[in-house]
TrEMBL record:
Organism: Phoenix dactylifera
The organism's taxonomic lineage, starting at the top: Eukaryota, Viridiplantae, Streptophyta, Embryophyta, Tracheophyta
Organism domain of life: Eukaryota
Keyword Isomerase: yes
Pfam families the record matches: SQHop_cyclase_C, SQHop_cyclase_N
Protein name: Cycloartenol synthase-like isoform X3
Entry keyword set: Isomerase, Repeat
Domain Squalene cyclase C-terminal: 526-649
Annotated GO CC locations: lipid droplet
Gene Ontology terms for molecular function: oxidosqualene cyclase activity
Length: 678
């Protein structure tokens, strides 16, 4: 099972074509504390969307590569000629409503998309609205009517290529990486139009906490990681130190009151160093020479879990190059704004291991600090000067080969957004489980395999209620930080390269807009995942014949999104698993099949094959079904569990000793997400 932080919220109302003639009314609050989607859609907004439009399965650029004619691709485009003055005012009204209630309702309701689909796919249903009192009987007729209304409503949200698009946002740390990379490469105003930048600023302001800071995700408490990077993003987007009706000043106050940006986590130190407002000497090492080690060593990056590997890969290249962007007046100003003391007086060696208490979910073990200090003070100076620099150049060359392979294999979408990062819970197989418990505050906490755990909110390990039944076990957190990092690596290698140009149009695959503004998603969508479950749900109602067109479109999407070829070349050399026959979480172009996504895609295909082709289309051929089964079986580990992307390649003891040293940027996640290191 997979849940994205800030997962898709589909609202709580049923679409209706009727709209009262009265002026817009305030939002109605549901028992869950969220604004009624029906009220917002049909009492506040006119039926047409204004200005922004969701484009499905379209290319539009000669720099885009695809295996299936862009099926599943979802991109928002701004059209200055769309929308009347009334419609634009109505959209602004719903944005104001979100901002007014932003502390009570953190999630958007995808109203811009819903408006567009309400016009494109009007709801045609003549069924009574079921309302039952507490003591009324729930008859079969009542249930069937409710099910028909639900499926009819949900069918209007289906895209023409068969999938169900929607918001897959939530994390706050993804957008800053994109803004920084576009800024240092000089592509910010080329890739992001003024309208894009305005909506991004809206989103960042909307999700600022009351104390002035920003969290790791939209529901999180303020952290130095979230606050410093979001503040920097707003400055790069043109906001001044005192703009935002005081929001920038309160953000800066939060940062300085909590120790300044030297207390940011490892990923934050990395991004600030790229921008030029932090010194590389204040970073713990990310040596690219790890890729030169023989594979039989347990610390070889090829043994890392793929998401860790694909983030460490470009990070090690950028670190090895010690890349720093142009030192602009904004960068010089940020050097003054982010720190409690003059920039020239900062002790960068001490800053390497500084971390604000709000971010420190798992303190560094002493052995980790010793290893980092040894690499930093002994190994790095050797590799930065001749003859050691020749070894570094060789390592950087190998790393770039792997980066280009990943880019080509995924059509420059990459495994996730910080290569263009995201988090989701993913059930996995491991001998070391973490267990979620609840604290006295009601916050979820984590018990680690070694018995160390603490409350996310109060940070007090003594106040965890371990008698409470666990709410989740055996989960693994996905960390995605790749097209953005890969894109920067390609630019560092050659600013005029074709590879960099091929990355740029894929930025839009990760951007999504709703009434809270424009966000960067944790994936390029959840297309296959949502479609497969929707098919299974509709078929389970025994109403397949009534909703044949919906199922047929979904069937087409499932068939079109199956991965039909393995990655090119020697898979073992590139540390890749087989792909042919699998399904990804989203689109075929993404190119990284997952065991559970493949299982759900296969299940939906088998169920659809039992229905007449005249209703749902021709079934998946036997050969492709066998290929899917082959992918699933190939991902069974020795302990009987199934891995997600690749078989387990490493050892449990690395969880304690090596992984956190090799990939230190994972440190800030402890306590919020659950990990299984391979």
């Amino acid at each position: 099972m997979r849940l994205c932080v800030g997962s898709r919220h589909m609202g709580d109302g049923v679409l209706s074509r009727a709209r009262p003639a009265a002026p817009p009314t305030p939002p109605v609050w549901s028992p869950s504390g969220q604004i009624s989607t029906t009220t917002l859609l049909f009492q506040v907004l006119p039926p047409d969307p204004a200005m922004w439009r969701l484009k499905i399965a379209q290319g539009g650029s000669p720099w885009l590569k695809t295996t299936n004619n862009h099926v599943g691709r979802q991109v928002w485009e701004f059209d200055p000629n769309m929308g009347t003055a009334e419609e634009i005012a109505a959209v602004q009204k719903v944005r104001e409503l979100f901002r007014e209630h932003r502390f009570e309702m953190k999630h958007s309701a995808d109203l811009l998309m819903r408006l567009q689909f309400a016009k494109d796919n009007p709801l045609e249903i003549n069924l009574p609205n079921i309302k039952l009192e507490d003591h009324d009987d729930v008859t079969e007729e009542v249930v069937l009517t409710s099910v028909r209304r639900a499926i009819s409503c949900y069918s209007t949200l289906q895209a023409h290529d068969g999938h169900w698009p929607g918001d897959f946002g939530g994390p706050m740390f993804l957008m800053p990486g994109l803004i920084i990379v576009l800024s240092v490469t000089g592509a910010l105003n080329t890739v992001l139009s003024p309208e894009h930048q305005r909506e991004i600023r809206r989103y960042l302001y909307n999700h600022q906490n009351k104390d002035g800071g920003w969290g790791l995700h939209i529901e999180g408490h303020s952290t130095m990681f979230g606050s410093a990077l979001t503040y920097v993003s707003l400055r790069l987007l043109g906001e001044g130190p005192d703009d935002g009706d005081g929001a920038m000043q309160t953000a800066r106050t939060w940062i300085l009151d909590h120790g300044g940006a030297t207390a940011i986590t490892s990923w934050g130190k990395f991004w600030l160093s790229v921008l030029g407002v932090f010194e590389w000497y204040g970073n713990n090492p990310l040596p690219p020479e790890m890729w030169l080690l023989p594979y039989f060593l347990p610390v070889h990056p090829g043994r890392m879990w793929c998401h860790c590997r694909m983030v460490y890969l470009p990070m090690s290249y950028i670190y090895g190059k010690r890349f720093v962007g142009p030192i602009t007046p904004t960068v010089l100003s940020l050097r003054k704004e982010l720190y409690a003391c003059p920039y020239q007086q900062i002790d960068w060696n001490r800053a390497r291991n500084e971390c604000a208490k709000e971010d420190l979910y798992y303190p560094h073990p002493l052995i980790q600090d010793i290893i980092w200090a040894s690499l930093h003070k002994v190994v790095e100076p050797v590799l930065m000067h001749s003859p050691g620099s020749m070894l570094r150049e060789k390592a950087l060359h190998i790393v770039m080969q792997h980066i280009h392979y990943e880019d080509e294999s995924t059509r420059y979408i990459c495994i996730g957004p910080v290569n263009k990062g995201a988090f989701y819970y993913e059930q996995g197989s491991s001998s070391r489980y973490r267990t979620l418990y609840r604290c006295h505050t009601g916050a979820v906490s984590v018990q680690y395999g070694m018995g160390s755990f603490r409350c996310i909110e109060c940070q007090d390990p003594s106040r965890i209620s371990t008698s409470t039944k666990p709410v989740w076990c055996g989960a693994r957190c996905t960390v995605r930080f790749g097209p953005v990092l890969n894109m920067l690596s390609c630019w560092i290698e050659d600013p005029n390269s074709e590879a960099f140009k091929l990355h740029l149009p894929r930025v839009y695959d990760y951007l999504w807009i709703a009434e809270d503004g424009m966000k960067m998603q944790g994936y390029n969508g959840s297309q296959l995942w949502d479609t497969a479950f929707t098919v299974q749900a509709i078929i389970s109602t025994d109403l397949s014949e009534e909703y044949g067109p919906t199922l047929k479109r979904a069937h087409d999407y499932i068939k079109d999104s199956q991965v039909l070829e393995d990655c090119p070349g020697d898979l073992s050399f590139w540390h890749r698993h087989i792909s042919k026959g699998g399904w990804t979480f989203c689109t075929a172009d993404h190119g990284w099949p997952v065991s559970d996504c493949t299982a759900e895609g296969l299940m939906a295909s088998v169920l659809l094959s039992k229905i007449s082709p005249e209703i749902v289309g021709e079934p998946l051929c036997a050969g492709r079904i066998y290929d899917a089964v082959n992918v699933i079986l190939s991902l069974m580990n020795r302990d009987g569990g199934f891995a997600a992307y690749e078989l387990t390649r490493s050892y449990a003891w690395l969880e304690v000793s090596t992984c956190k040293c090799i990939f230190p940027c994972l440190q800030f996640l402890h306590g919020i997400f659950i990990f299984t290191y391979f």
